[in-house]
Amino acid sequence: MEIVRTISHLRHAVGQWRAAGDRVALVPTMGALHAGHIGLVGAALSMADKVVVSIFVNPTQFAPHEDLDRYPRDEAGDVGKLAGAGAHLVWAPAVSEIYPDGFATRIVPEGAALPLEGAFRPHHFGGVATVVCKLILSALPDVALFGEKDFQQLAVIRQMVRDLALPVAIQGVPTVREDDGLALSSRNAYLSENDRYIAPMLYKAISEVARGRDPREAAEALIAAGFARVDYIDVRDAETLAPFVPGSGRPGRVLAAAWLGKTRLIDNVGF
Hints:
Elements: E1 2-4, H1 7-19, E2 24-29, H2 35-47, E3 50-55, H3 75-85, E4 89-91, H4 95-98, H5 117-120, H6 124-139, E5 143-147, H7 151-164, E6 169-173, H8 193-198, H9 201-210, H10 215-225, E7 229-237, E8 252-260, E9 263-270
Parallel strand pairs: 1-4, 2-3, 2-5, 3-4, 5-6
Antiparallel strand pairs: 7-8, 8-9
C-alpha cells in the first residue's frame, strides 16, 4: 500500500489507475480510525477497483475554542489498519499542502448547512465543504464515501456536489455501532469510564423520538441520565433537512447533539 503526501503524487498514482481502466473510490477521514472507517473501506472496495483513503485533520472546520490540538492522531496505527483492510493508497498531506501560503478561497454552504450543527457551529460546514471539495478535485474519484453518523455533513456534501456539478458520486454508509448502541466515533476516546456507561442513552433517546416520543421529553431524559447539555434533538426531512412534515410520506431523520462531560456526541436515526 502506497503512502503519498502531495497532490501531484496522488494524481500521478490515480492517473496510472485510470489509464488501466480502473474505477477509483475515495474515503476521506481525519484519522484515528475505528471499525466505522474500516467499514467505509470495505464498502469502497465493493464499488471500485482502487481505494484511496485520505488522512487529514482539517483545521478550518474547528473553531478556536474546539479540540483541534487534542484531536486523536495515530498515523502509524491508521496505516496498519488500512493495509489490513485492503486500501490501495493512503493520502496523508500536510496542512501546507492543502492550504498553501496565500490560500484565500472558501466555500460558503447554505441550505442543509444552516440548521442544527450550522446554528451551534456556524464555522464548521464552510471548513468541511472547502476541504472535501479540494479532496475530491485532488483525487478525482468516481465515488466518495461518507458515514451516515455525520448525517448533516453528508447532506451538505451532497448539496455541494449537486450545486457545483462535481463529477463524483457521493455514497453514504450506515453508522457502525457498539453492541450497546453507541455510534463509533474517534471522539469516544475522550469519554471517562462513567461517561462511556451513560453514552448509549443518546441512541436510545433518538430511537424513541423516531417512534413518536416528544423531543423535549427525550432531552430531559438525557439530562436526568447525566448529560451536561443537549444542544438539539430535532426531527428533519431526511433529504432536505427541512423541518419534518408528519403525514408527508417522506423519509425522516432524528438528529441530536449533546454534551457528556467535556465530550460532544452527535447521532441520528432514520424512520
